[in-house]
Amino acid sequence: MTDVEIDDADLPEPSLKNIIDQKTLQWVFVGGKGGVGKTTTSCCLGAQLSKARKKVLIVSTDPAHNLSDAFCQKIGREPTPIQGFDNLSAMEIDANNDMEEMQRNMQEQGTDDDDGLSAMMSELTSSIPGIDEAMSFSELMKQVQGLDFDVVVFDTAPTGHTLRLLSFPTILEKALGKVMELKDRFGGLIGQATAMLGSGSNPANAQDAILGRLEETRAVINKVNDAFQDPALTTFVCVCIPEFLSIYETERLVQELSKFGIDAHNIVVNQVLFPEKDAEELAEWYGKTKASLPAEAQEICSKMMARKRMQDKYIGQCFDLYGEDFHVTLMPLLDYEVRGTEKLKDFSEFLINPIDLEE
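The structure assignment produced for this chain is given below.
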């Protein structure tokens, strides 16, 4: 496609087999622009990982969940076994709702002293931008870490939301560091403020409870941050389609992931028209058969050819940008929707058995 040599033996294999073979991986994030096929890619990757691992979990962190639609079965907030698999489960969770639930649980389980703790936590989470989502993300990670799975595939929300999600460990670490610094400087004032906000009569206990909860959250976040930045444990799969905006978004995503220290060396390009052929081959065929086609067929073929040329251009740019360092996997556009276990299993084969571009 274009002038790019994508079958060079020195280039990374154009498949996700490297992820399947890396037995140390515990966290695999799948992300990209909205509407590029992240959920389908996550489900297919989970299906392939289930062949190599004992227990695999797919987690959707996108508020607009699609896992239930992809697998054609109801999936909830708890790990749900996927029909047709012995060792694959999925769950759909909304990190934004977890903070409210955490505060409700604190209130239900609390005493008078804990009322002040809840009020103080509420004040804290509303006064530091981003900390509410960051703390709910901490609760999510604690929940996922407590589950017995070898590897977790995260089907993430569109790029902006995902980048914020991945920045939460840094945000929370800074915020909690600031709180601890204030504690050292102002001592019992936090406890007194807690007593004022609630009806508790023991400010010292309330202060210890708040700081204990924050320290617990901080420990989880530090552990998560270390894991995120360890390429042996975590990697990010960027998903795009061969169009300008999607390729541009992928470049931004790769740069941001690099800033966060998160490994990314796989790109999946979805909705590719005839990956095994290039526009020149198709143009040659069309030139020979155009005269024999009716006008409507000529118009359809003409539009298809224009789309194919555009795709080839951006696929060429993708290999120019990433071909030497990334595994770039081309996934074909099919004439049917990839929904249900059997179709996902079939489609997942393209992730590990790359299409022969020289056919």
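Interim note for the steering committee: The two ends are 13 Å apart (CA to CA). The longest strand covers residues 234-240.
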